[in-house]
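JOB MANIFEST
job_type = single_chain_structure
chain_count = 1
residues = 218
[input]
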Amino acid sequence: MTSTFPDISISTDRLVLRPFDATDVPALTEMMNDELITAWTSAPHPYTTADARDWVLRTAPAERASGRGIVFAVTEFLTHRLVGTVRLHHTDWHTLSTEIAYVTAPWARGEGYACESVLAVAQWLFRDQKFERLELRTAADNTASQQVAQKIGCISEGVLRNAWIARSRTEDGGWTDIRTDLIVWSLLPEDLDEVREQYTGDGTGYAAAFPGWSPGWR
């Protein structure tokens, strides 16, 4: 029998990570047409309302139901505005390992939301689901995503050469596919403990560095 993640929401001080619903379609459509998301993901471009509806109503629920992973809509706690997405996929229930991917809406960048949401999922995954490994892959030139990996304590394990197809702007304003390397990062339960110790000399530094790091879930 295939194992599956529970149908849950995760809360931090500033964010709620919950399943997608139909009301997210307009915001998701707008977010996924951002240039950086187009460049560094394999999402369709242009990203249409039909694409968003298919993701919200079919693809995201199927990810959890099939046991492949789970998809969260990341929203602001106070405004309920869509901040981004966090997705666990390529889940191996025998080794208790999975891969994480995330995107952040352009208006929400620079607020630490990516670190906060990924940390919340990692805490839940290790503490509640008893997983032993979380993997992250970033394109070689995607420095923003690499900074997230470093800040939350991920360890760089190596490079998969020529392993990803990203997209780049052309002179006429269109897009063209380009091959790029992937950097492989991993996070283990003990890595989170080491990051916490690094910031908790007086017991407050970790919370200040990562607002809302300690999640509750329901």
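[summary]
The beta strands are 10-11, 15-18, 70-76, 82-92, 97-104, 133-139, 155-169, 175-187, 216-217.
Confidence is low (pLDDT under 50) at residues 200-209, 211-218.
exit_status = 0
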